[in-house]
Amino acid sequence: MSRKQRVEPSGDLLEVSGLEVEAGGRTILHPTDLNLGAGEWKAIVGPNGAGKSTLLKALATLVPYRGSIRYRGRPISEAPLAYRSELGVVLHEPLLYRELSAWENLLFYARLYGVAEPHAAAQQALAEVGLSVYAQEPVGRFSRGMIQRLALARAMLHQPRLLLLDEPLSGIDARGEEEILKLFRRAKEAQVAALWVTHRWRVAWEIVDEIVELERGAVRRITRTAGVDRESWEPSYLEEGAR
Amino acid sequence: MKAYLRAVLTLARKDALLERKSLETVTATASFTLLVAVLFHFAFDIRSAEGARFFPGALWIAVLFAGTIGMARSARIDEVEGRGRGPALAPVDRSALFLGKFLFHLVLMLLVEGVAVPVFIAAFALRGVALPHLFIAGLVLGTWGFVALGTLLAGATSGERSTGLLLPLVLFPLLTPVALGGVAIVTAAVTGDVTPATGTWLRLLLVFDVLFTAVPALLYESVLEV
Amino acid sequence: MIRAMIGAQKALSIGTVLLIPASLYMVFVYAPNEATMGVVQRIFYYHVATAWNGYLFIGLVALMSLIYLIRREDTWNRAARSAAELGVLFITLTLIAGSLWARPVWNVWWTWDPRLVTTLILWFFYVAYLLIQAGAGESQRQKRFAAVFGIVGVIDIPLVHYSVVLWRSIHPNVVRPGNPGMPPEMLITMIVSVIAFTVLGLYLWSRRLEVESLSQRVEALKAKVLPL
After folding, report:
1. Is the C or the N end of chain B the one with fewer CB within 10 Å?
2. Domain enclosing residue B174, as ranges
3. How many domains, in total, are found in chain B?
C-alpha cells in the first residue's frame, strides 16, 4: 500500500499555515506558516523551549493542533494514512524496543508499515546506517550513537518522501556522522524533503536550503543558505546574547 | 481491510515477542492466580462439600485481580521512552493499536486461565465440571469484556505514577456485569443447573463485549497522544 | 452553552429560593402521612430528587466529555469535572437518605438491592472519575482519559443496572408507568421536590462554571505576564 504511484502536484509537498499548539493553557507554538517543496531541506534552529520539537510532533500528528497542514495539496486530516505512509520521523525518543534485537525492531516496523518485502527492507535499512553486523544484538546493549542510527533506519525503512528529524546526529561519532550525512545527501537527491531540528547548524548548512529560526514558539528569521557565508552567520538568539 | 488486520496481528505479535523474551507478565499473572486459590483456602477453610459454592467466585476474583496487574504492567512497557508513539506514526488507523493490544492481552489471559482452571478445580475439590462448553463460553465471554475495558484503561493510566493504584479503582466499578455474569454462568456450568437466566447472562456478556470492544477502539486515539 | 448556563444563574437562583421552601412546605405539611411507614416515608421525596440529580449529572459529565474530546477546549473539561463534583454530592446524599429510610422500614441500613447496588457503583464511578481528574494537573492526556472514562461510564451504567436486576430485586417500585401507586398529593410533592432539586443542582453547577471561567481568565492573564 505504500508503493502507490506518486503524482507530483505543481505546488509544494507540504504547506503549513496558521499551525498553533497549546498545552495546559499556554501557547507552545504561535500560528506558524511553513512550506516545503519536494527535495527541499530546511533546518530548524532555536534556543531550548522554542517549540522546535513541538512543531515536529504536530506535523507528525502526535499532538493536537489548530491550523492547516496540507500534504500534496490535501489536508492531512482527510487522508491521514496516506500522509503517514510517506512520513519518516526521528523523535528525541528512539521509539525502539530495547528487549528486541535491531533486526526484530526493524522487521516489526516494516510489517506495520505494510512494506512489500519486509525482510529485504529491514536488511537494506540496517546496511545503510552501518549496523548489519549488529543485527541480532538486543537494542538494550547499543550505545547512544548506535541507537540513534537504528532510529534513523527505522524512520527511513519505508522510503518516506518527507522526513521530520529531531537532532538525528546526537550521540553519533565523527565517522558515523559522515555516513549519516551521506545518507541524507542521497535522500535529498532522491527528492525526499526534510525538516531538520538541530543545534549544529554548521553541519546542516551544506545540506539544507534554508535555516528557519524559531524563538518563543514563533518564526524569528529565515535565511537562505545559498550565497551566505557559513562562517559569518550566527543564530539571532546567540547574537543577542553577545551584545 | 486486509492491511488493517495484518497491522493488528503484527502489533499483537510484537507484544507476544516481547513477552516471550522475559515471560515476566505471564509468570507473574499465572502465579498470582494460583496464590489466590491458596489464600481462599486459608481464608475459608473449604471442605469438599462447599467447593462448588466458592469455586466460581474465587476463580473470577483471581482472574480479575491477576489480569489487572498483568495489563498494568504490559501497558507500562509501552510507556518506556515514549515508544508507544512509534506505532502511532505508522500508516494504520489508530484503532488497530487498541485491537492489537487487546488481542495480545486476551490470548495471555486465556493462557493463564488454562493453567489456573485445573488447579482451581483440584483446590476446590470439584469432581469435574457438569457442562464444559458452557464453562468455556462463560470464561471466554467474561474475559473478553474484562480485557477489552482493561486494555483501554490500562493504556490510559500508564502515564500515571500511580497506575497500579488507579487502574483497579477505575476498572472494577465498570466490570460489574462481567463479575456478576461470569460468576452466574460458571456456577451454572459447574452445577449443571441451567436456568433461563443463564441464557440472558450469556447475551448480556456478549452485548458488553461487543460494545466495549467497539467504543474503546474509537476512543483509544485520544488517550494515546501526548 | 456554558455561557448560557452562567447567564441563567440569576433565574436559577430565584427559582431555587422559591422552589426549595415550597417543596419543604409540601413535604412536611401538604403531603399526607403514609399509612404503614409513617413520617419516615417523607425522606422519599428528597431521596428521589437527589437520585435523579445524580443521574442527570452523570449524563452531563458524559456530554461535556464528548464535546471536550471533539473540541479539545479546556472549558469543557472543567464543565465535566464540575458536573462530576455535583454528581458525587447528590449520589452521596441519595445513599445516606436511602440508608436512613431503610433502617426503620427494611430493618437494615443496607441491602443488596439492584437500585442500591447500581447507585453504589455509580458513586464508585464518580469517585474514580474525580481521582483521575485530581491527578491530571496540566496533563492534557489525563484530561482526555477522564473524558473517555466519563463516556464509557455512561454507556456502562445501564448494563450495570440490568445485570444487577438480573441478579436480584426487592426495591419497592414506587413509580411504574401507568400506575403511580400513590395518592396525588404525594405524587405532586415528589414532582415539586424533583424540580426544586434540579433547579438547585443546576444553580450550583452554574456557580461552579463561573468560578472555573474566572480561574481560566486568571491563568490566561498569568500566561501573558509570565510567558514560558
Report:
1. N
2. 2-224
3. 1
More confident residue, C7 or A77: A77
Contacts of B among chains (3+ CB pairs under 8 A): A, C
Give the pairing of strands A14-23 and A66-71: antiparallel
3-class secondary-structure state, position C139: coil
Are B205 and B145 in contact by the 8 Å Cβ rule? The answer is yes
Cα gap C153→C148, rounded to integer Å: 8
A25 CB neighbours in chain C (<8 A) are 74, 138, 216, 219-220, 223
Q: Residue C49: give the domain boundaries.
A: 42-210
Nearest to B166 among C124, C131, C155 (CB): C131
Enter the ipTM: 0.87
DSSP C26: I
Residues of chain C neighbouring A49 (CB-CB closer than 8 A): 228
Residue A228 touches chain B, beta carbons under 8 Å: no
Neighbours of C220 (CB within 10 A): 11
pLDDT tens profile B166-214: 889 999 999 999 999 999 999 999 988 888 889 999 999 999 999 999 9
pLDDT at B47 over 80: no
- On whether residue C115 sits in a domain, the answer given is yes
Name subunits touching C (3+ CB pairs < 8 A): A, B
CA-based nearest residue to A71, from A9, A29, A115, A21: A9
How many domains does one find in chain C? 1
Q: Per DSSP, what are the bridge partners of residue A219? A: A214
Pairing mode, strands A74-75 and A66-71: antiparallel
Residue C220, domain member (yes or no) = no
CB contact (8 A) between residue A104 and residue B17: yes
Count CA atoms closer than 13 A to C85's CA, side-chain side: 16
Residues 23-82 of C with CB under 8 A from B: 69
**Residues 59..98 of B with a Cβ closer than 8 Å to A: which?**
80-83, 85-93
Integer-rounded Cα Rg, in Å, for chain C is 20
Cα–Cα distance, A43 to A167 (Å, whole number): 10
Q: Is residue C48 part of a domain?
A: yes
Q: How many CB pairs under 8 A join A and B?
A: 73
Structural domains present in chain A: 14-86+160-242 (3.40.50.300)
**CB contact set of B149 (below 8 Å; sequence gap of 6+):** B171, B174, B175, B212, B216, C152
pLDDT in tens, C165-176: 888 754 555 555
B11 touches chain A (CB under 8 A): yes
Tell which C residues from 58 to 77 touch A, by Cβ distance under 8 Å.
72, 74
